[in-house]
Amino acid sequence: MAGSGAMDLDLLALANALVGNPGDTAAIEIAMLGPTLVCEADRCRVALAGAPFVLGLNGQRLDAYTACDLRRGDRLTLGAPREGMRAYLAVSGGFALAPMLGSLSTHTRSRLGGLDGTALRAGDRLPLLDPAPAAQPLTLPAHHRPRFGGPIRVVLGPQADSFTEAGLRTFLTEPYTLTARADRMGCHLDGPAIAHADGFNIVSDGIVNGSIQVPGHGRPLILLADRHTTGGYPKIATVISADLGRLAQVRPGEAIRFEAVSVEAAQAIAREARQAVSRRLAAMIPAGGGSLDSAFLLACNLIGGVVSAEPHETAP
């Protein structure tokens, strides 16, 4: 069975936390141009995390990374983002949809999951599971919000020996441009050809999220969330898990550079990425200033350090 799920699990977790959901609750993944949504519940809470889409409620601008309560008849609009590619719209309580293989994710190529196995279309209605929010709406302060950009870090292999030294050097030193042939299954890159050492066919083996194949034309092909399970082109490298979200924000026409790291470094970066998400979750505060009552203050870490009040002895 092919893979699926959010292209950026960290952003999904942040959007869900803002509306009080568990981090893996199904949300709407939005790419490049957002929809117009109409609330048909008495009340629900929504929040957007990711690329800075132009977000509006009944014609009034809204801030991303900030939960907002909608009432029946409210219209939520999402215009094109100034930068980046994808964002996640979470709804309090999640969606009342039947899971497929234990998931609410949509795999459009096999028409499985989600709502009728397809991307959302005009007129679709998403039933809400329990839309009434129970706590205060939250916001993530601007200086804690994720930033995009920078090189895409990779671990070389598992078939790095299928390429010449010059081919590996080309891959790691030359820029590649994301082409229009990019979707949730994978993205084709354009740029200098990478030289194979001895042909470009191998016995098909496993594909993971971030596998970078190099077909006969020599340009990289990165497999992503909706990837197939096996492939017969040699894989020059694998994008580290911590950079998959940043890769998902690259637009067609933008350039990518690759940087090789060791397995140990990739593991350390992944641990730091998980800690960064935890810090962002802990940094969320009530939206609109909120109520600084004792319960909220006791939940915050208000101590940034300790200074001794005793005098220090000086050396003679």
From TrEMBL:
User: Which PANTHER family does this chain map to?
Assistant: 5-OXOPROLINASE SUBUNIT C
Q: Which UniProt keywords apply?
A: ATP-binding, Hydrolase, Nucleotide-binding
- Top-level division of the source organism's lineage: Bacteria
Q: Which organism is it from?
A: Methylobacterium symbioticum
Would you tell me the protein name for this molecule? Answer: KipI antagonist
Show where the Carboxyltransferase domain sits. Answer: 2-277
GO molecular function, one example?
Answer: hydrolase activity
**What gene does the UniProt entry assign to this protein?**
kipA_3
